[in-house]
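Running low. Got one?
___
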Amino acid sequence: MRASLALAVLAVSLYIAVTVPVRLGLDLRGGTQIVLQTRSTPTTDADRAATDRALEVLRGRIDALGVAEPSLVRSGERRIIVELPGVQDPKKAADVLGRTAQLTFHPVLGLADRAGGTSGPLPKRPHERVLPDESGTPLRLGAAALTGEHVKEAAARFDQQGGAGWHVTVGFAGAGRDGWARLTGEAACHPPGDPARRMAIVLDGKVISSPQVDPSVACETGIRDGATQITGSFGPEAARELSLLINGGALPVPVETVEQRTVGPTLGARAITAGAWAAAIGTALTSLFIIVVYRLMGVLAAAALACYGLVSYAALAALGATLTLPGLAGFVLAIGMAVDANVLVFERAREEYASRRRPSTRSALAAGFRNAFSAIADSSITTLIAAALLFFLASGPVRGFGVTLGLGVLASTFSALVITRVLAEYAAGRPGLRRRPRLTGIAATGAVRDRLTRRDPHLMRHPRRWLATSAAVLVLAASGIAARGVDLGVEFTGGRLIEYATTSPVDPDRARTALEDAGFSHAVVQSSGDTGLTVRTDPLTDAEDAQVTGAVRDLADGAVKVRDELIGPSLGQELRRGALTALAVALGAQLVYLAARFRWLFGTAAVAALAHDVVILVGVFAWLGKPVDGVFLAALLTVIGYSVNDSVVLFDRVRELARKSPGAPLRGVANRAILQTLPRTVNTGMGAAFILTALAVLGGSSLTDFALALLIGLAVGTYSSVFTAVPVAMELHRRGDRARPPRRP
């Protein structure tokens, strides 16, 4: 049954992997992402319906721009996320998308003086407004007679013979034809040269053209073919942009850009290459490690890891999920989860083999899978909680990390409990291996367990010493937060982040001085990779952006902008609140789950260890001056999942031993549980360390801080799950016994 299920899943996964491509995020293939937020006006509320109408208008504009495979989706009630692959000019795209494009046609009543007064034969009328024409001359305009809704079609044209150059032809339909005839007929009743013979075409409150009605048009007759031309000093791009705005229609409500990210194609290509190398080398090192430790079972586990990669890739493709750079890291990171599940099974199988009089590798493996199931399930669920929080509370590429991490955990659990089991039980049943059980790796107890058996240390003899050590490290971390502060990334503060690729290394101090001389005293300059440079500032205007780029290029000729991110201040505050909410919900969710699965005592102890890990990791980044951004949040939540995994495995063993020895002191039970699970903790930590080291060294500048945070969190989490969580549980247990009234004789 298991073999049939494994073969069916692998066959379907192979078919999907070959036939369905995975959609790459903009951080991997290059392009621009713009997040727009609708704003209410005195006459229109920016509700869900208005946002949906705005989305359709924007879709028409994007289609007219000719962008290949664009993506537009509504996020929440008032936000629209626009992804434009290959677009490297975010300013132009934002201008086109952000224009309200309210097109109106007005009769000109006369001229107005510079102070806003009126002139000409016409008296002042209701709804009259004054706007300058193309040359700056103030015009008195009557109420709008026609709007963009009356326009059937607009097109950019070039008239070489007539001398009009680039212009936009506009055709009216239905009531628009009659309205245009009436409007031009009234204007034609004024003599040529009279300002009142002009028509004003207004776009978003600005007169873009005010042509005179041709002398050939008769009074009261007007232009009846429903066509006109918008002329002016248009270039080809301006004419095409105006025509697509008119065709796309007006936005029902104004929109503003709250977030903007641009990634160059070369940076995306390098990220893919770096991520692929990190995945390949990290997986190879991890596979080699488990083969050395577990021999033939390690070989089969490595084969199951390859199957995990196929299944998780196919799941990503089948769901149509987008693979981002942090998502690629999550894909690689889940390999560590798969290793953890295999190590749990093999270590339990080793214990079963060593405890039996007439051991059998096949029966020991069956018992190993049976006894490890609860710990594997608990570990997977706690990691899925972290992945779900990232998906629902994070944004941008970090959300993609949550998706791939969740899919990876499910795929790794399947590969360990089904594929590895099928392969291992088949191999263990071969006659040759039954005669040579040590080849399987199950008959050997392992180097870590051998040392522990010889020494039999009592690690929990003085639990308060471990608590004092943890408290000292916490004080050191907290002092870093207090003394140096937390360097919040642009995602949480709002502002601009620009990354440049240079041909030679640039000293960040020199760049910082050059930017200070240019008037950007608050700019934060850091190295990026071997030769790159990142500049983080407050929001910049186009002119200020050019100044910053110019200052960098004065230091490094040929510097190329490869990444550009803009986060509005309101979105930065929102993301900061979301990050704190995600962290609080993560700790609360883990506490609720662990309290339900174990006792409240163990759940509280595990969450105390998690809080310990969070403070230390933030403190280390504060001391190092590293930014705390959305990618760091993903690493932090993953560390919480890792730490909970270790605590779950340990407390699962404590619970098992306590059931076998009811009434035994918690100190002795906890110490035995630590010694029995320590081989799994060491081997799993080593396997994950290979993966994370590969990400840190080979993953490129975008993943270096991410992998560094995970490496620190792995070390701290491994320590805290044993030497913080268990002493806290023992202390709570002791205080509970002291508070409990004595039994009556």
